Each structure stands twice: as structure tokens, then as C-alpha cells.
Amino acid sequence: MSKCRFNDVKISGIVTCVPTEEKSIDDELELFGGNVKQLERLKKTIGLSKRRVVDENTTAADLCEQAARHLLAAGAVEREQIDTLICVTQTSDYSQPCNAAVLQGRLGLSKECASFDVGLGCSGYVYGLWLAHSLVASGASEHVLLLAGDTISRLVNAKDRAVAPLFGDGGSATLIERGAGVGTAYFSLQTDGAGYDKLIVPAGGARQPRSAETAVVAEDEAGNFRSLENIYMDGAEIFNFSITEEPKSVQGLLEYAGSDADAVDYFVFHQANRYILGNIAKRLKLDPAKVPMQTVEHYGNQSSASIPSAICGELANGVCGRRVEENAAFRFWSGALLGQCTA
């Protein structure tokens, strides 16, 4: 297990961005055979309600770019100061070049800025923070701009009720830099690739390129429709993995840090669904008030953008941040400029 700690590294700002279009599970009753009771049960237990999805012309890079521009406009850092750009996504604009290289140019960052992608989803934001902290702590970077976002809705078949109501889209920008005396950050990273096929888009990569055959939509035994080019999720396996492994990981990290749950203000988990979040909180015996779990009800499972979205949407307002409403293409902004803005 990879555990490490970093001193004198701080998160100076977080901004998240979601697209304008909102979908509601109430408008998708046909997915559940018109069963109103089943729909209401899902809304109550799992927290499925609304989600934001991109249009056909908007990508994860676009969402992350808008978040980054908002962060830069707030004066958190000057463009020329950013020496590393990390882009975490599983829905990049192109197979090549990487999103980070494209966004380095679109944001007008220095040519001396190191830029690279990280191809991770749900765990991506934590891995991105770990990378950024590593670079700053080692002296390799001074100001790291971490962009994390996905448009998983693009990979979902609208007739697949196992995933269609779950996934929303979002982008985020986080600034990580040196900060003397800010305390210690602790990380614990793990991997279990044995279950790779439990959450997968089978076709579209080098292993199985797209073809006329992979585009064919078929119905499974549960009545869900998808092709090999759509995302597949084994919900039961994902749930069991989450509630079994995540509590152990959290407890192990607390022990490594020499702390306990009472000393922690908030536990911000990946916003998969409310049922998973509630079970994790219960197994760790956490105060529910310390576990944000409303973000998924408003924006869906945003993959790599879900944790920063929860920080901005549920913790920033009234604490250390602000909301900004826009009437442009990206209507809702949620910004937390830590230590630099008024509530």
C-alpha cells in the first residue's frame, strides 16, 4: 500500500463547472416500465434525482477550461507562474494529443509548463492531488494547475437504466502550490485491477477498435440496452467493493496520520450515489453532517470531478467560498477560493 505525507504544500483554490442542460429522473419513467413506486424508491435510497449533461459540442476539456479561466480571473495565480498542468480525464478530446497539451495552448500558459494527462475516473482527483503534492514537495514544481473532469454521459446508452440516471458531467480546476507552515497532507493509494471488467467501455481502444459490430445495441437479461461502445457497470460488484474497501482505506489512513474521525471536519468521498455514501459513513461510524452527499442528487456521478464539486457545492458556501451564476453556456459555477474570497 502506497502511503505518504507532504509538508508545506497547500490547495489555494478550487473551481468547478457544470453544463447548462439538466436532466431529471422524473422524466425517465419509461426506463422503469412506468413503475412510479420503483422510481420513488430509487430517488429516496440511492439519491437519484437530477444531473447535468453536456450537449454534442461540449467536452470535458471545455468544462475544465472554463473552470480554469474562472480560477485565473479570480487572481489565484498568474498564468506565467503555472509550471505544471495535470489533466485527469477518461473522456479526452482526442486519442492524441492529450487534453493537457491542448488546454495549455488554449489557456495561454507558458511553453515551459510541463503538461500531461492522467487517465483515471472515480479515483482520479485523489491521484491528481497526490501527483501535484509530490511535484511541489520535491521542488520540481511551484504552482500546479490540476484539471479534473469527465463527460461520462457521452458513453451512456439512454436506454440503459443501470447507468443512464447515474452519470452527470463536470469539470474542475484546482491550484496546488507551496505554503510554508500549512500542515501535513496524508495520502494512501491502492489499486485492484482484478475487477477491471466491472466498470468498462469494452470497445473503442486498441484491444477492440470500434466497428459496425461494436456499435450494435443489444438487450441484456435485465432489460438494459447498450452496445460495446457504451459504458457497462456491474452495480452490485461496485457497491460491494465500495462499502468493503473504502472504510478500511479510510481507517488505515487515519491510523497512518495518527488521527481519528473526531479530529476531521469533513470526509469528502467520491459522489457515486447516496446509498453508497451512507453505508460508508455508517460503517465508519461517522457523523452524517461530516459527509457531504447531496452533490450526486443535483449533478449526478461526475467521475473525476465529483470530489471538487462536492467541496465547492456543499462546503464552500458560508465557509470559505462563493457561488457565481452565469447566463452563458456554462450557467452554474461553484467556486471555492480557499483563503482568498469572502463567503
TrEMBL record:
Protein name, per record: 3-oxoacyl-[acyl-carrier-protein] synthase III C-terminal domain-containing protein
Ranges of residues in domain Beta-ketoacyl-[acyl-carrier-protein] synthase III N-terminal: 116-193
Domain Beta-ketoacyl-[acyl-carrier-protein] synthase III C-terminal, residue spans: 254-318
CDD domains: KAS_III
InterPro entries: ACP_syn_III_C (IPR013747), ACP_syn_III_N (IPR013751), Thiolase-like (IPR016039)
Record's keyword terms, sorted: Acyltransferase, Transferase
Entry coiled-coil feature ranges: none
Organism this protein belongs to: Coraliomargarita algicola
Record-linked PANTHER family: 3-OXOACYL-[ACYL-CARRIER-PROTEIN] SYNTHASE 3, BETA-KETOACYL-[ACYL-CARRIER-PROTEIN] SYNTHASE III
Gene3D superfamilies listed in its UniProt record: 3.40.47.10
